[in-house]
Write a structure and sequence with these properties.
By secondary structure, this protein is α/β, with parallel strands linked by helices. Helix content is 18%, strand content 17%. An 8-stranded parallel sheet has the order 19-16-15-14-13-12-21-20. Helix 8 links the parallel strand 20 and strand 21. The chain is globular, with a radius of gyration of 25 Å.
Length: 633
């Protein structure tokens, strides 16, 4: 793949209740090793239910240092791993092998490697009786180091691990902790503490049984645009500075992390950290299920969330909206994929399989109508990262283009159409149109099969078409926001990440020609819907700081990617307990959060301070106290 193209993102690298910690009441089951062992393995079942379980494995190398490592074992039953993180999986029948990910190949003497997985089973869930390291039993002789240039056979799992360019130096550690378990040779005593459970929910529920939002007691928080600014009802500039939290878009059909942490506590923490808007990825498929009154069981730990017991995914979303209002947070709904699939964002377009363009529009109309009287839900991101390269997809048409046609794959037309249908229901909600991936150079068109005829950038990051074919919403043009995405070299080592790159070179090479001209020429506001990554002490961190400073200088609206720790190519703001914050990453982000002169974070609400009066304030109080408008055209 050309460096000008974006590689597949592995943001949903850990899914479906994959918890890298011991939930209260869960016994850890450990496999002790013999005295002459060359490795020590800890196998911990962190959660278990009737048909599945999650487990974590750590292996301590008691022998010589290894360039690459591979851990093997044989299940005693019919366990089948469905998702795995922090490793590369091969499973044939009961035989399992997990090799190191590219970013954690070295396993020094006395060093520890850790990974985890989710698996299905029937009957009993017996603990594996023996493990190998690089093909040698942990109780045997020294394993042989796998040569660095040896390819370890693997079957790619449904989840992926971070893609790290080989020519990008990566620090040994990052600011985001990965799940680890301390090896021990003692089998803990099983206690009587209740095990977290998943409450069964009927596959189909009568639509009248769902909760219906009652709306706000006031409707004074709707936002509009004025040139390149987003403004409140009084015309005063505001600054949307938030975070992404995924899960509703995935097979779990609910926020990730609710398998471990309490929703209310998480919302309070988010608000007190100064994040005034949450971008919520969701799938068209899930919205259509809600519309039809069909609900699949959400992955929620009711031990940690007793108040969510028996609720459908829609009722949980409604509770999230209520909590958002309570803590002064606003909500953006983002259709992330057509299908409810942890890898659904790989699909380039808004239609896929049985999901048609018309169903995409109808899903948007339904969810807009549901929340049209509640200004907590303040913005709609029409479709996440439409992409695809035109030069090699001419026959299939599986690429998003941006022109003046009404073709089925013309993203500009689709975003325009969806926005108009949304605004016909709620003319006060903001609508966001992201970019695509490629745009033809002067003199070329989307019919060209020559890749040199196109400008390439990140998925969702190419808004060059706005200059030639701007989105036209007629009388509702003042609700339109353009939304690029931008990432660093640890996602893909693009050509503009050459030695010595900095904020100025990024501005010239990528930001201005692809999207910042929209702000600079006062066409419309910009909202950077996704940006973020690992703190590697190198090129990726250099990019993050450059974009952070750029956002702050121009008060660009943004939602950081991501709250979730289980984003494979970026990590998250939270640790794997879904409660501890990565303080180094948060410190990098904090200057881009809207705050007053006294350091209080500003809500996008006129009456409810963000996180309470101790940490936050309101738009009304912010301007009454003479704080400066967050604008720098």
């Amino acid at each position: 793949m050309s460096q000008k193209q974006r590689s597949f993102r592995t943001r949903l690298a850990m899914i479906g209740g994959l918890v890298a910690l011991l939930i209260a009441g869960q016994p850890a089951i450990t496999k002790p090793t013999a005295a002459a062992a060359i490795c020590e393995v800890t196998y911990t079942i962190s959660n278990q239910w009737d048909t599945g379980f999650t487990a974590n494995i750590s292996v301590k190398n008691l022998g010589i240092g290894l360039n690459n490592w591979q851990v093997g074992w044989t299940f005693a039953g019919n366990q089948a791993i469905t998702n795995l993180w922090n490793g590369v999986l091969t499973q044939t029948g009961a035989q399992v092998s997990v090799a190191n990910p590219a970013w954690a190949a070295s396993l020094p003497s006395n060093g520890t490697a850790s990974f985890g997985f989710q698996a299905s089973y029937t009957g009993s869930n017996a603990i594996p009786s023996a493990f190998t390291l690089n093909g040698v039993n942990c109780n045997g002789d020294q394993p042989s180091p796998i040569p660095t240039n040896t390819t370890i056979p693997s079957i790619p799992p449904a989840t992926n691990t971070p893609i790290v360019p080989t020519n990008t130096p990566i620090a040994t550690t990052t600011g985001t902790p990965r799940p680890t378990n301390t090896p021990t040779s003692i089998v803990p005593t099983v206690t009587s503490t209740p095990r977290p459970t998943n409450t069964p929910i009927p596959t189909t529920v009568n639509p009248t049984a769902t909760s219906t939002p009652t709306g706000n007691n006031n409707n004074d928080d709707w936002l509009h645009t004025n040139g390149n600014q987003i403004v409140d009802s009084a015309g005063r500039p505001v600054w949307l500075t938030g975070v992404n939290w995924f899960g509703f878009n995935a097979t779990e059909r609910v926020f990730h992390g609710l398998w471990s942490a309490n929703l209310t506590s998480m919302m309070q923490s988010i608000s007190q950290r100064g994040l005034n808007i949450i971008r919520v990825p969701i799938s068209t498929e899930l919205i259509l299920e809600w519309k039809a009154g069909v609900f699949k069981t959400p992955n929620v730990n009711t031990y940690a969330n007793p108040e969510l017991e028996g609720l459908t995914s829609l009722q949980i979303f409604d509770r999230f909206v209520v909590l958002s209002k309570q803590f002064g947070i606003k909500v953006m709904i983002d259709v992330h994929s057509a299908e409810a699939d942890n890898s659904g964002h790989y699909a380039p377009l808004w239609y896929k399989g049985s999901i048609t363009s018309e169903q995409f529009y109808q899903a948007w109309e339904w969810i807009t109508d549901r929340y049209k009287n509640d200004d907590t839900v303040i913005a709609m991101d029409i479709k996440n990262e439409p992409h695809g390269t035109a030069h090699d997809n001419q026959a299939s048409g599986q690429f998003a283009k941006w022109d003046n046609s009404t073709d089925i794959n013309n993203w500009k037309y689709v975003c325009e159409t969806a926005s108009k249908r949304i605004l016909a229901i709620n003319p006060n909600v903001l609508v966001l149109c992201e970019g695509n991936e490629v745009y033809p150079k002067a003199g070329a068109s989307y019919t060209s099969s020559n890749k040199n005829d196109y400008y390439f950038t990140w998925w969702g990051g190419n808004l060059r078409g706005v200059r030639d074919y701007p989105v036209n919403l007629g009388n509702n043009q003042d609700q339109l926001v353009y939304s690029p995405h931008d990432y660093g070299p640890l996602v893909f080592n693009q050509s503009w990440f050459y030695p010595g790159f900095n904020k100025e070179t990024l501005y010239n090479d990528v930001w201005y020609p692809n999207w910042f001209f929209i702000h600079e020429e006062n066409i419309a506001p910009l909202f950077i819907g996704e940006w973020g990554g690992f703190l590697d002490g190198g090129a990726n961190e250099q990019w993050m700081k450059a974009l952070r400073d750029f956002i702050k200088e121009h008060y660009l609206h943004h939602t950081f990617w991501v709250l979730n720790p289980n984003s494979g190519d970026t990590g998250g703001l939270l640790g794997y307990d879904w409660a501890t914050w990565d303080e180094a990453k948060y410190a990098l982000l904090k200057p881009t959060l809207w705050a007053d002169r006294n350091g209080k974070f500003v809500s996008l609400d006129h009456q409810i301070p963000l996180g309470g009066t101790a940490t936050g304030t309101t738009i009304t109080q912010y301007y009454q106290q003479g704080n400066p408008a967050p604008s720098n055209p």
